[in-house]
Amino acid sequence: MQFDVSAIVVSHRSAGEALQCVKSLRRAFREEKIAGEVILVDCDSGADQVQLLEMAGADLVLPLGENRGYAGGINAGLTRARSFRILVSNADVVFRAGSVVPLLESVDDDAVGAAAPLAFWDSSDRVRLPPGWAPGFLSDLAQLSAGRRLPREALRFASFALDTLRLWEYGGDARHLTGAALAVRRDVFDRIGRFDERFPFEYEETEWEDRVLARELLLRFVPRARVHHLWGASAVASPDTPARRAESRRIYWRRRYGRLGRAILERASRRGRVPDFRRIAQPQLPARQGAWVAISTNPSLLPFAGTSLEEDFVLPAEITARLPRTPLYFRVFRASDGRPLQTMVWQKE
Question: Given pLDDT bands bounded at 50, 70 and 90, which one contains residue 325?
Answer without folding.
Answer: confident
